[in-house]
Amino acid sequence: MTGVTSHRQRTVRRPELVGLGVLATVGVGLIAIAAEWITGVGATVIAIFLLAALVSVVWTAFVGGLDARRALAPYGLLKPGMLWLCLFFIAPLWSMLEMSLSSKKSRFDFLPSFTWEWGNFQKALTDFAPQFGRSFGYAAAATLLTLAIGYPIAYVIAFRGGRFRSLLLGLVAVPFFTSYLIRTIAWQSLLSDRGPIVGTIDKLGLNAPLEWLHIMNNGRLMNTPAAVIGGLTYNFLPFMILPIYVSLEKVDVKLVDAAMDLYSTVSQAFRRVVFPMSLPGVFAGSLLVFIPAAGDFVNAQFLGSPETTMIGNSIQNQFLVQLNYPLASAMSLVLMAVITASVLVYARFMGTEDIA
Amino acid sequence: MSTRQKTSESQSPRYSRREFLIRSGVVGVGAVSLPAILSACGGGGGSSQATNTLYFENWPGYMDSETVALFKKETGIDFTYTEKFNDNNEYFAKVQPLLAKGKTIKPDLVAPTYWMAARWIQLGWAQKIEMEAIPNAKNLRKDLKSPSWDKNNEYQLPYQTGIAGIAYNASITGRELKSVEDLFDPAFKGQIGMLTEMRDTVGLIAMANGIKLSEISSFDQVASAFDKLEAAKKDGQIRSFTGNDYMDDLSAGNFAACVAWSGDVLQLQAENPDIKFVIPEEGGTSWYDTMLLVEGSQHGEQAAKWMDYIYDPVNAARITATVQYISPVDGVRDELVKLGGETAKLAESPLLFPSDEEIARLQSWGALSETEEAKFDERFATIIGA
Amino acid sequence: MTAAQAPRQAMGRKIVNAIASLGMLYLFAPIVVIVLFSFNQPKGKFNIVWQGFTLDNWRRPFAVPELTDALLVSLKVAFFSTLIATILGTMIALALSRYKFRGNGAINLFLVLPLTSPEVVLGSSLATLFISRGVDFGYVTVVIAHVMFQVSFVAVTLRARIRGFDWTLEQAAMDLGASPQRAFWRITFPLILPGITAAALLSFALSIDDFIITFFNAGSLVTFPLQIFGASRVAIPPQINVLATMLLLGSVLLMVGGVILESRKQRKTLAVTKTRK
Predict the structure, then answer these.
(1) How far apart are CA A31 and CA B210, in angstroms?
(2) Do C132 and A95 count as a contact with CB atoms less than 8 A apart?
(3) What tens digit of pLDDT does each residue of A286-339 get?
(4) CB distance B30–A188 less than 8 Å?
(5) Minimum-distance CB partner of B248 among C48, C129, C140
(6) Which of B110, B237, B244, B236 is nearest to B180 (CA)?
């Protein structure tokens, strides 16, 4: 009797450690098996071990009573989803790392073999430097533009929407219920040389200034960097509007009134009170626009020219046309590394909670 | 039998339901390898039994509305016809994971362009067709017989053939175009389109440089053509590289002129009579799409019946009347005349039935070795910016 | 506020409104094109230049079998992936908002990683795993890929939705003698169900519209976006516009329905609180 009690107490004292430990172990174990760090007999042994670990949690919950069960519950709830991500998000990254250091003996070899081929990274960084440059450049431009267009929209909806707020917000989302590709293709018709936009510009005589700004090129908009950036801006605009709206919504109107009393002008009140309070939304929106834009290849494909291709086009081409999986993997990893670095810097500043 | 052995021995393991349930119970801890789990629930690749069926995966917009139904009715074969063959390289990438492992794919017949068909045959992804079962194969045009990569005509029959030349929008160019050099005219800066199909784009430029396409075996021979193309791209002369979608740009007025395929332009002219097609003075490329029986398909017999059916000039003419490409079948011209009306006019079309003088200007590529082809593709990919 | 500032403020107000209206115009311009061209009557097989008005495409929206098949494939994939992702994602969201536990921060970070990775990386890395482990591409791989990004999405959106949830309600039910299961299903679940539904609907939309990740992992399977991509290189039939417009109308109706329901509920709760006072 006493034996059981003391055992129970021992287990109950730190059940959450058991839960966390098992979650981590099983996750790593799954990655190990999927990434084939361990194969054959080793994998079976590990699998049995992982199974035993799972059984031990269940057992802990069973003997540990209500408290232990409560402490273990979050890990139980997390497990299926987290394991899915381990298996299909982390393990793939590992196998991509492996692939990026592999090489093919002959061109139509299906599976490259691992050879510590660092040349893939070298090639990715030298031959594809322009594509990387354009990706980050266009994505940055698109981020600034979405901010310039999205902020006023979010502002008007949040402060002047009144009871139509949710309707207006929904209206913003409506265009994005059509297919991404169809939207982009529709821009082709709008931007074409004989399309409505170029026509309007001609009528208004705006050609010269737009050419000077390098937005137009020889009287055309299609297949220019401006068209690609415009497409990116369009397609990722809601990712800017929504987070800004969410943060603006939290701003208390009374606070703005008070600020106006203090600072006397609307613009000052905005600069000193409203804008700082919306910064989390701006930061979240910027990341949510910048990241997908940097990896996009659809806009460059449909609206661009051979001089405006982005790294996504190259990855897609190397992977699905040239069948050069190693080079494509190296390029993906470089892209991922740059973006992860910026996300981590961001997380440092803002905390992860606000990304959603 | 242990799990490991079973997975490594057979590529497509099938489990009993009970076994699978036990396994999926263990999935949580990952006791089985990933492919085993997935193929157990996915049912593996499309393995076809010898039933009276046939599946043909063709390029889009490449068939009239009646032939498929007529063939089904006449032969009783359960014929599936789809149009998902969009791009030679992409299709290759899609099927490679299966075919390279010795599995087969769902379609029995596919329609790669001649150079891609050569690659499939070389890789052992195609099987021989029983030509004795195709009496109408005698109607195959002489110039298409015995290509260097299928000397005995045993692996494929052409489906449609065509010419790559120059298409232009006369209302924009304001003049007649004749030569490949016209594509490099600074007056059309930023209004020129080129095809992503390397052999057609580079082929035209190479011919303009006086190179004979059939003699090309190494990259160095055509390096000059690639240089010329790259210079034009850097200059902004070339607006974009496209697939069939050059037709959008051509009719929307974005392209003044582009490298184009004959049949497309014929169809476009229905919408926009300003659009012209010309085989350049220096020469055009001739190409064809094949019908290839996929290795592992159990439906060679049905495939032969299908090929025999569409090599009957009557049926071939019906397809030609709709798709307006050049038929590989002799005797189509007479059948078109018999059909009468608008269709009979097609028999007079120089794009469907080019004159001997024009045919003399056509050239086609020979086979390239794997390493050389890689150089071509790599350089071309750099130029198109990918 | 002085009298002189009033006109300036009105000006500023007008400018902001004008920018916002232009922004809305920008948002809707392509939509107008899409809807308009669903009524086009192309002479050839290309739907690029306006040729004339017709209702034919709307009379025969399913006239292109490849397109219809692809749409069905997409719906099927979206159904299964959303189902799996909603269950897994909801469990994660519950764990994160209901309990305080060790490793919370790490798991939060882990969860947003898939959302902050470019799609091209997610797609190509998963395809690399499948290729190097010899997994055949098809339905299963596409569903797996979609669940992968949907799980994070559902978890993060739902967690945000139920951040302010009053967990003492559940406790109260248990104090009154309900078992934890019963307390959850009778009290908590109905209250968070709208949040779950919203997250599921959005992730369904994500799945239907996903192109980049699917492109890498579909093999010969053709989803709706993949079919559009294929068609875009050859000929885009007006039926694409018709189906796109239908999807658009469907989702707008869903959304409007949601807004109406919510405002009704708000009015009701308002009424309840008023009577209580």
Answers:
(1) 57
(2) yes
(3) 989 999 999 999 999 999 999 999 999 999 999 988 889 999 999 999 999 999
(4) no
(5) C48
(6) B237
CB crowding C3-16: b at 16 or more within 10 Å, else e: eeeeeeeeeeeeeb
Structure tokens at A206: 């705006």
Residue A317 touches partner B, C-beta closer than 8 Å: yes
Radius of gyration of chain C (CA): 24
B interface with C, Cβ–Cβ below 8 Å: 11, 33-35, 38-39, 41-42, 44-45, 59-61, 82-84, 86-87, 94-95, 97-98, 101, 103, 105-106, 242-245, 247-248, 251-252, 267-268, 270-272
Give mean pLDDT in consecutive 10-residue pieces for chain C, a chain of 277 residues.
60 84 91 92 74 88 88 96 96 88 83 89 95 90 96 91 83 85 86 89 90 94 92 84 89 78 68 53
Using a CB-CB cut-off of 8 Å, the residues of chain A touching B100 are: 108, 110
CATH code for the part of the protein at A119-355: 1.10.3720.10
Three-class SS state of B167 = strand
Q: How far is B210 from chain C (nearest CA, A)?
A: 31
Residue C40 burial (C-beta neighbours within 10 Å; 0-12, 13-18, 19+): buried
pLDDT, tens only, B125-165: 999 999 999 999 999 998 899 898 999 899 999 999 999 99
The tokens 């929206």 sit on which residue? C61
For the domain covering C65-236, report its CATH number: 1.10.3720.10
CA distance A335 to A345: 16
> CA C216 to CA C235: how far, in whole Å?
23
SS3 category, B46:
coil
The answer for residues whose C-beta is within 8 angstroms of residue C137's C-beta and 6 or more apart is B94, B97, C127, C130, C217, C218, C219, C220, C221
Report pTM: 0.87
- Of B104, B197, B159, B115, the C-alpha closest to B384 is B197
Query: Domains in chain B, start-ordered, CATH in brackets?
Result: 3-42 (no CATH), 53-159+288-353 (3.40.190.10), 162-286+364-383 (3.40.190.10)
Question: What is the mean pLDDT of the segment spanning A220-238?
Answer: 94
Partner residues linked to B158 by β-bridges: B290
Listed by number, the residues of chain A in 259-298 with a beta carbon closer than 8 Å to a beta carbon of chain C are: 260, 264-267, 287, 291-292, 294-298
8-state DSSP, B153: S
Is the CB of A72 inside 8 Å of chain B's CB atoms? no
User: In angstroms, rounded to a whole number, what is the distance separating the alpha carbons of residues A264 and B81?
Assistant: 73
As given in the structure block, the two tokens for residue A99 are 């692939």
Closest CA to B12 of B52, B48, B53: B48
Rounded distance, CA B78 to CA B95, Å? 23
Closest Cα in chain B, distance from residue A339 (Å): 21
- Residues from chain B contacting residue C37 (CB–CB below 8 Å): none
Report ipTM (2 d.p.).
0.87
**Parallel/antiparallel/unpaired status of strands B109-110 and B53-57:** parallel
Q: Which of B33, B86, B272 sits opposite C234 (nearest CB)?
A: B86
Q: Which residue's entry shows tokens 């905390």?
A: A351
Characterize the bridge pairing of strands B192-195 and B156-169. Answer: unpaired
CB within 8 Å: C95 and A295: no
What residue ranges do the domains of chain A occupy?
2-100, 119-355
Interface chains of chain A (3 or more CB pairs under 8 Å): B, C
| Domain boundary assignment for chain C | 65-236
**HEC-encoded secondary structure of A49-108:** HHHHHHHHHHHHHHHHHHHHHHHHHHHHHHHHHHHHHHHHHHHHHHHHHHHHCEECCCCC
Q: Smallest Cα–Cα separation from C252: which of A277, B85, A170?
A: A170
